[in-house]
Amino acid sequence: MDKTGFIRNLVNSRGSVNLITRPQRFGKSLNMDMLKSFFEPGTDPALFEGLEISRENAICEQYMGKYPVISISLKDAAGLDFQTAYDMLGSAVSEAAERLDFLLDSEKLTSSEKMKLSRIMECDFNKPFYLHSSLRLLTKLLFKHYGIPVIVLIDEYDVPLDKACQYGYYPEMVNLIRSLFSQVFKTNENQKL
Question: pTM for the full model?
Answer without folding.
Answer: 0.90
